Amino acid sequence: MKLSFIEVLKYFLTIVVVTFLTFFFHELFHWIGYEILGYDAGFTLNGASVKDSNIELPKSHRMLTSALGPLFTMAQAFVFFMILKKHKNIYLYPFLFIPFLMRLGATWANQFQPNDEGRISLDLGLNLYTISAIVVGILFFLVFKISRNNKIPIVVNLITLVLSIIAIMGLVYLDFKFKVRFV
Fold this sequence. Notes:
The structure is a single chain. The chain has 183 residues and is mainly alpha-helical. Helices cover 70% and strands 4% of the residues. It has one domain. The chain has a two-stranded antiparallel sheet.
């Protein structure tokens, strides 16, 4: 399978848009949780939190707000898994692949500071990586099944991996550099 420069560029732009949307809605769902629970919160492209850092959330609130982002991300993956089972559109594949790579990256980042699944694991008295491993395992399974079902070649998966890493790293860098708050 030979891909033209224009096809790769179009695919990369799709990945950039999907990365933005995936991160935006992931953090939006954290924010919604905070707001529903009565907290004044805000979010950027790579983080959501209560605006008053002196507030300590009860464990149940911390677990719920931590879970809402990954639950959205997993729901996105399941929806696009079902769509991709019926429609073999490569431009929809990033909607499944990005959630997997996003949560894989978050698992790796747990070593620096527990993130969503890491916080939930610790709150449940589990190993830091337990919930992360379950989430990433499920998402990997979905990516693997669609890759096989839709006969996505390894070269396309490698291109998707590299372009997705670039898009995610770019988004994380821009968020770190500018911290643009949506709320």
